[in-house]
Design goal:
With about 200 residues, the chain is mostly beta strands. It has 2 domains: about 5-45, no CATH class; about 65-200, Jelly Rolls. It has no helices and 17 strands. The strands form 4 sheets. Strands 6, 7, 10, 14, 16 and 17 form a 6-stranded antiparallel β-sheet that branches. Strands 8, 9, 11, 12, 13 and 15 form a 6-stranded antiparallel β-sheet that branches. The radius of gyration is 29 Å and the shape is rod-shaped. About 15% of the residues are buried. The model has no long low-confidence stretch (mean pLDDT about 80).
């Protein structure tokens, strides 16, 4: 038998029986409840009334705010040389399965760009991310070449970034591609390792 008891110090609500909940209603409509295991459930909570230290909350349970779900990273350790003006893969790919179709992915990379030319003063290249067969971003040209006064070659680090919304929960593969702008022989990740990192952001 469920009971309500009071004393000078306590008000006790007891839902008698295994698996029985304590329910709070207003005008015949349930607004909140306390389960037999002690879990509190409410149709709404006024955030302005919350104060003090809150318990740890799982990010996967949050709604209405962005949250970091996963981080994927590879070191781009394979050297590549190309004169292609149509685009080639220059780094290790990342294959992943989105947590949900609403996930977005922040793609970031650092590529080491080196031009194998002592005659071309400025040899440019363009980079893009690729999701499966879809080209996502085509950068402005980045270039390196000989220092004109000395006739030597230079290397530079190229940062690339793109926020992608694939709108799928199926497995996808991301890559980095490059194409030279003048067919000049160029190296990538030849003298130093690059990096490719993807952050999965929940809706």
């Amino acid at each position: 038998m469920s009971t309500i008891k009071s004393s000078t110090e306590h008000l006790t609500l007891n839902a008698d029986g295994s698996g029985k909940d304590i329910k709070f209603q207003a005008n015949g409509v349930e607004k909140a409840s306390i389960s037999s295991t002690g879990a509190f459930t409410s149709t709404s909570i006024d955030a302005t009334k919350l104060s003090g230290a809150l318990p740890a909350i799982s990010g996967s349970a949050l709604t209405g705010v962005g949250k970091l779900l996963n981080i994927y990273n590879v070191i781009c350790s394979t050297p590549v040389q190309t004169t292609s003006t149509s685009g080639i893969d220059i780094a290790e790919s990342i294959t992943l399965t989105p947590t949900s179709s609403g996930s977005r992915f922040l793609l970031t990379a650092i590529v080491h760009h080196y031009t194998n030319s002592t005659t071309t003063a400025w040899a440019a290249a363009k980079y893009n991310f690729k999701r499966d067969a879809v080209i996502l971003r085509d950068t402005d040209s980045f270039g390196s070449g000989k220092i004109a006064a000395v006739g030597t070659k230079t290397m530079m680090m190229v940062p690339i970034e793109y926020l992608d919304s694939p709108n799928t929960a199926a497995s996808i593969t991301y890559k980095i591609q490059v194409r030279t702008m003048a067919g000049v022989s160029q190296f990538f990740n030849n003298y130093a390792q690059g990096s490719f990192t993807i952050y999965e952001i929940g809706a």
